[in-house]
Specification:
hydrolase; globular; seven-stranded mixed beta sheet; 12 helices; Rossmann fold; alpha/beta; Metallo-beta-lactamase, Chain A; 24% strand; nuclease; 23 strands
Length: 460
């Protein structure tokens, strides 16, 4: 199946009908452009979009099977990574040997990707091209422009993909945050200009399409987090996503303002912090201390930021809860703040961790029970979706990055904004945008690969 110069196609291989392991293809004039290449971390008992029930013993790391495009590798013009979250970039070290194409991305994302590739001894094999916001790059028959948007990680980008047959706006993961704390912001005029030019299709994040209102800005979290940190008598441990550099920076400022010393626990969190410094998105005035020192400080001077907000095994917070962390042991009166919401499927693991902490007489503060704001989602609620549709004004809405309930809600929002047509589907559906819009259901076989014992295996 090779697109002709009369075809403009969208083909999701992962991330449509599910949240995680994003992999998208755009086809035109004999070539394909891949956007994002991510992983997922399945939980036993979780049901995937394709109806698969996950069980114990499966590989911990899974990703889309790229067989469709890897068997047509000569048609793959390039891979664009929109941002550095695992579900968008995490599969690159595992799948690039099957793709062997250049990778285009922003400076911060490139730093994260380089670290991943170095861990797999692949750094000098992969051609990484760093693109600045506003820059236009020709990749095969596509002209791709990087557009600044905001999300819960530095330097995320939306894409304007231009072809002679029409333009596609690919949102990536986003929100409309007027003060994202770190990284670039966004400008309304950027997106209104797209409407003036004409947008055939808008392929857009659906994660929070069922949520009314507007997401919270990262800048609004300082007061709430300070309230719970300043009011603690013992140590404070905040657990959040390590990729949220803005959250780490806010916590660094709170540590300075409350007389505490902040240390980072967990390899992924430390890696992200180092990448942020190398990419220039972490201000030199903000700092952390060597975690080995925290165990020797008075308890009321300690602010530890740890991985493990989703109850994952072998994370820093799990080790603290088990009393097996080498730096210090939690004691009654210490406080753990969960500055993150549960990803669907993780609720049981998180509750088990909370029960473990509570049994140790450690105070626990969660997003749902907190009186003040301590977390902000990185995805758009309904009012933000409406705003972006009003700015971009596409002819066709294609909801992605969500389960069926999210994508259907998203399509409803698009219709309410006057978008003439919405097309919803799932991985393996071929979305034909030109010459005649339509969907060929399950045109391409999709599946999952897992990483196990240093190699890729098919997940049944």
């Amino acid at each position: 199946m090779t697109p002709t110069d009369k075809d403009l196609l969208f083909l999701p291989l992962g991330g449509t009908g599910e949240i995680g392991m994003n992999m998208n293809l755009y086809g035109h004039d004999g070539q394909w452009l891949m956007v994002d290449c991510g992983v997922t971390f399945p939980k036993p008992g979780r049901v995937s979009a394709d109806g698969t029930v996950h069980h114990s013993g499966e590989p911990d790391i899974q990703m889309p099977d790229p067989e469709f495009i890897s068997s047509r590798r000569d048609q793959l013009a390039g891979l664009v990574i929109t941002h550095a979250h695992e579900d968008h970039v995490g599969a690159v070290p595992y799948l690039w040997p099957k793709l062997r194409c250049p990778i285009y991305t922003s400076r911060f994302t490139a730093e994260v990707l380089k670290k991943k590739l170095a861990e797999h001894a692949m750094l000098h094999q992969v051609k990484i091209i760093i693109v600045e916001v506003g820059e236009r790059v020709h990749i095969g028959p596509f002209e791709v422009e990087w557009l600044p948007i905001t999300h819960s990680i530095p330097d995320p980008n939306a894409l304007m993909i231009r072809t002679p047959l029409g333009n596609i706006f690919h949102s990536g993961d986003w929100k409309l945050d007027p003060d994202p704390v770190v990284g670039h912001g966004y400008k309304e005029d950027t997106f209104r200009a797209l409407a003036d030019e004409g947008v055939l299709a808008m392929v857009c994040d659906s994660t929070n399409a069922t949520t009314v209102g507007h997401s919270v800005s990262e800048s609004e979290l300082y007061d709430g987090l300070r309230h719970y940190i300043e009011g603690a008598k013992g140590r404070v441990i905040v657990t959040c996503f390590g990729s949220n550099i803005a959250r780490l920076l806010t916590l660094s400022h709170i540590a300075d303002d409350t007389g505490r010393y902040m240390g980072l626990y967990g390899r992924s969190m430390v890696n992200m912090y180092q990448c942020a410094k190398r990419a220039g998105v972490w201000p030199y005035s903000a700092g952390t201390v060597d975690t080995g020192h925290l165990g020797y400080l008075p308890r009321h001077e300690v602010l530890a930021v740890a991985t493990g907000s989703q109850g994952e095994p072998r994370t820093a917070l799990r080790r603290l809860a088990a009393g097996t962390h080498p730096d210090f042991e939690l004691e009654p009166g210490d406080r753990v703040i969960f500055s993150a919401r549960a990803i669907p499927g993780n609720e049981q693991a998180i509750q088990g961790l909370i029960d473990q902490l509570t049994a140790m007489q450690v105070e626990v503060v969660t997003v749902d029970e907190a009186e003040y704001l301590i977390h902000a989602s990185g995805h758009p609620a309904q009012e933000e979706l409406k705003t972006l549709y009003q700015w971009v004004q596409p002819e066709i809405s294609i909801p992605v990055h969500g389960e069926d309930v999210h994508m259907k809600a998203h399509a409803g929002v698009a219709r309410s904004c006057g978008v003439p047509r919405s097309m919803t589907g799932r991985n393996g559906d071929l979305f034909m945008l030109r010459p005649v819009p339509g969907i060929q259901r399950q045109k391409v076989k999709t599946g999952r690969l897992g990483w196990e014992k240093g190699g890729l295996v098919r997940v049944e």
